[in-house]
Amino acid sequence: MLEHKDFPYKFDENACASCEGNCCIGESGYIWITVDEIEKLSQHLNLSVDKLFESYLIKYGYRFSIKEKQLSQNNYACIFFDIDIKRCTIYEARPSQCKTFPFWDYFKTNIQEVKDECPAIRD
């Protein structure tokens, strides 16, 4: 059970197995990735950074995001989320945004939203 002192809930990482990837699927958004994380991901995938950019990343201003794939109207998934097995295919090299879920500042004031989205949230 993971806890964070600034959040009124806990995260049961064992409950991820019962989820369908709710944190990787949903409304379109940004999956931010840093330059250091891009380098780690390129090594993990055994791709050049240029090929990684070409195939999997989008630049927004001075920031980078992992691309999404559209599943249906208003429903998207991270390009690295395997829909069939309901798992992240880059788990070992996923960006910090993914690693820190559900302890995002946004959820400090949107607790019910994270509880509705994530079956691993515990009081």
What does this structure look like?
The chain has 123 residues and is of the alpha+beta class. 24% of the residues lie in helices and 25% in strands. It contains four helices and eleven strands. 17% of the residues are buried.
How does the overall form come out from the CA principal axes?
globular
Task: Give the integer mean of the pLDDT values.
Answer: 93
Task: From the alpha carbons, calculate the radius of gyration and give it in angstroms.
Answer: 15 Å
Cα-to-Cα separation, first versus last residue: 11 Å
Q: Which blocks of ≥5 consecutive residues have pLDDT under 50?
A: none
Please give the largest β-sheet: 3 strands, antiparallel
Q: Return the string of H and E elements.
A: EEEEHHEEEEEEHHE
How many extended strands? Answer: 11
Proportion in helices: 10-25%
Task: Give the topology.
Blueprint: E1 2-3, E2 10-11, E3 25-26, E4 32-33, H1 35-45, H2 49-56, E5 57-60, E6 63-66, E7 68-72, E8 75-78, E9 81-82, E10 87-88, H3 96-99, H4 111-117, E11 121-122
Short précis:
The chain has four helices and eleven strands. The protein has two domains: 1-23 and 101-123, no CATH class; 24-85, no CATH class. The chain is an alpha+beta fold and 123 residues long.
List keywords for this structure.
single chain; 123 residues; alpha+beta; 2 domains; 3-stranded antiparallel β-sheet; globular
